[in-house]
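User: Thanks for the earlier help. One more: Rrf2 family transcriptional regulator. Can you show the sequence and predicted structure together?

Assistant: Of course, both are below.
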Amino acid sequence: MRRDSRLSVALHVLLHMEDMGPVVTSEAMGRLMKANPVVVRRTMAGLREAGILTSVKGHGGGWSLARPLDEVTLGDVYEALGTPALFSIGPRDESPGCLVEQAVNTALEAALDEAAALLLRKLRNTTVAELGRGVRRRHARAAKQRARPRA
């Protein structure tokens, strides 16, 4: 089953944009992400409509951050992408006549609703800047390991 990776792609793009400079083209981002620039543009368009990015057409144009990443939550990005389905599991039949399947659906829906609420709360309470700080910590640890003398 294919996973919806748009949230991952959008977060990846935002974190790289912060480091790449004030204006980034979708072609440059596509090369970096090993993705078609059209796919990158589609993802970024949703972020523009949500006020997370701005864009300028033409020579010297491209995409820019519209607000600091410490003001953008993972939930904001998720919502900008149109709130894709969080889970790929669900009931076999939405309106079953079978009492057993009705009980299964009730249990699944309750568990999925609880899990979705927890996940959305976490997304809304985590900023993209926090992810960036985590990336910088990973880079620092990796650099320390590379700098250690080999025995």
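User: Great, one quick takeaway?

Assistant: Helices lie at 6-20, 26-33, 37-49, 74-80, 99-124, 128-147.
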